[in-house]
Amino acid sequence: MPASIPRVSPFTQAVVQAVRKLYPEKLADSSFDNTGLLLEAPYRQQHLKNSVLLTVDLTKAVADEAISRGDSVIIAYHPIIFRGLKSLTQANTQQHTLLRLAQEGISVYCPHTAVDAAGLTDWLADILTCSNEFGHPGKSTLHERSIITPLKEPVEGFPGAGYGKIIRFRYPQTLGDIMDRITSGLVLPGLSVAVPQSVPVGKKAQIKISSVGLCAGSGGSTLNGLDVDLLFTGELSHHEALAAIEQGKCVITAFHSNTERLFLMTRMQNKLFPELQKQIDASIKEGTWEKDLTSDFQINASHVDRDPFEMVDSPWKGW
């Protein structure tokens, strides 16, 4: 390979720098998470476009989408490599996807819990406390917020970052009103809801809620044991939900990735565009940007990424 051709796409390098600026890897929970540049694909000059694809999960369908579009890099919220690999084979579907992307020159970056700590949790709190539509908060109800799990070591420029939130309303809200805010804000047809078994039919939506513990994705480890009226997360185990309602709490779950996906479309995409422009402009000014590349680029959310579970009404017509 000629020395003048870089091994890694200059555009991909700029994307990684931009994401790390917005969601530093120091914000991630390193006790279990695997964030960062998980696939640094070889640079195939003039083979791919200067474009980014945002997705929650990097599935075969999303990989097909990125390949057909000619994207240079995928930002996948969930790490496709979560634990150590001893081999890369075609038999494993995720490894097969990684091999295909490497062959095409498409890199993969995963920010995961760094995003949780730096904005996603507050975005969910905005939805829970505001009249909103398509992820855009409206007028807020009076409330206070606190972090469930603060960062062990503060990160400069990100005061108050951490995992999970507790919301305490100044005036109690009805469970029905909170459900309306969530379905509207996350654009969902319905929710999974559990309430104490002593509450009669017809009275459940009128349950008064003064405090909420919330966490994106799978919230059991973060929310268990909280002294709040309502637990809101993507998913909670059967036994965790039973324990909660027997303690007099309510539970709302929206399916794991439904608490995350719209954030990519409404917040991350909008924040990434100007930051990436800054990184590219700086590279051009420094003369480190390839002459055959321009500052024109695209950032798109995946059209095929979706939660594996669907909410299906009975009878099953049209499903």
Write the layout of secondary structure elements.
Elements: H1 10-22, E1 36-39, E2 51-55, H2 60-69, E3 73-76, H3 93-104, E4 107-110, H4 113-129, E5 130-133, E6 136-140, E7 143-150, E8 162-174, H5 175-185, E9 192-194, E10 208-218, H6 220-223, E11 230-235, H7 238-246, E12 250-253, H8 261-286, E13 298-301
Would you kindly provide a written description of the structure presented here, covering whatever features stand out?
With 319 residues, the protein is an alpha/beta fold. The chain has 2 domains: 145 residues, Udp-n-acetylmuramoylalanyl-d-glutamate--2,6- Diaminopimelate Ligase, Chain: A, domain 1, CATH 3.40.1390; 144 residues, 3-Layer(aba) Sandwich (Udp-n-acetylmuramoylalanyl-d-glutamate--2,6- Diaminopimelate Ligase, Chain: A, domain 1), CATH 3.40.1390. Helices cover 32% and strands 24% of the residues. It contains 8 helices and 13 strands. The strands form 3 sheets. It has a 6-stranded mixed sheet, sandwiched between helices. The chain has a 5-stranded mixed sheet with strand order 1-4-3-2-13, with helices on both faces. Strands 5-6 form a two-stranded antiparallel sheet. α7 links the parallel β11 and β12. It is globular and about 70 Å long. The termini are far apart. The mean pLDDT is 90.
Key terms:
319 residues, alpha/beta, Udp-n-acetylmuramoylalanyl-d-glutamate--2,6- Diaminopimelate Ligase, Chain: A, domain 1, 2 domains, 6-stranded mixed beta sheet, 5-stranded mixed beta sheet, 8 helices, globular, NGG1p interacting factor 3, DUF34/NIF3
What is the residue-averaged pLDDT?
90
* Overall 3D form: globular
How would you spell out the order of helices and strands?
HEEHEHEHEEEEHEEHEHEHE
CATH class term of the largest domain: Alpha Beta
- The total of beta strands comes to 13
**CATH fold type of the largest domain:** Udp-n-acetylmuramoylalanyl-d-glutamate--2,6- Diaminopimelate Ligase, Chain: A, domain 1
CATH architecture of the largest domain: 3-Layer(aba) Sandwich
The biggest beta sheet is recorded as: 6 strands, mixed
Flag low-confidence runs: none
- The radius of gyration over CA amounts to 21 Å
Calculate the terminal CA-CA distance, rounded to whole Å.
Answer: 52 Å
- The quaternary structure here is single chain
Major beta sheet, strand line-up: 7-8-10-11-12-9
- Structural class per helix/strand content? alpha/beta
Helix content: 25-40%
Count, helices: 8
- CATH homologous superfamily label of the largest domain: NIF3 (NGG1p interacting factor 3)-like
